[in-house]
Amino acid sequence: MSGTAITTGTGKGPVRTTAAGRTRALARAELTLLGRSRATLAAAVFVPLVMPLMLRSNLESMRLKGTGLTAGSVLLPSSVGFALLFAVYGSLVSVYAARREELVLKRLRTGELRDLEILAGAALPSVAIGLAQCLVLTAAYQVMLGVGAPKEPQLVVLGLLSAFVTWPALAAVTASFSRSVEGAQIAAGPLTLVSLLGSGTFIPLELLPDRLAPFCELLPLTPVITLIRGGWTGHLSAHDTVGALVTAVAWTVIAVFAVRRWFRWEPRR
Asked: Which of 61, 174, 191, 240 is deepest in the core (most CB within 10 A)?
């Protein structure tokens, strides 16, 4: 099926629209709505920028000696994780739930927009904010901590690409199992907390007990942190690289399947 549609113009003949154009238009409208929701915008913009300061204050209590980790190699991937959890996942859970309860999603489906375009258009502003935060924090760490350029940038790119597909999809799934925006925020709490504690954001996997680390490697945020940290340091083995990539792809497939299977377009009554 083609991604191009034709609509009626204003007396000048038909106007051809594309999937990319429709998605951009929806993203611009969503950005306007996001700017009006001060609580969601504040959580998306400021929380990921404050969390690294909290983590840096705890670095002295971590026993990094002998692990091959430095302050920069801990803070940089963790900051990406904070951006994904709060700017992308946390804000999108609220966005999807709010648009569903306001019947916005239902109305959009009656037009020429396809389901993927609706979900992607709603996600683009949050993804853009998250990406901007990653770039700003990376530049700051290069100045303050001298982290330098990534040794294997392809791993960083793969980690970010998988994350910016998986986490919006996980947000859509989470929103589907709540009856309100407030309920969606509560529903996002468990995955956020588990990811903060077990995916190498607050505590690197190298410092976790041997029995706990293998389980934490299977969490959805862990392969992203692993790929970004390994891409920057260049110390990720081929075995660990393949394992992280397989886990990332598996979570992407699971998240996309779950959206197709369980996402709700109408309010839960």
From this structure: 174
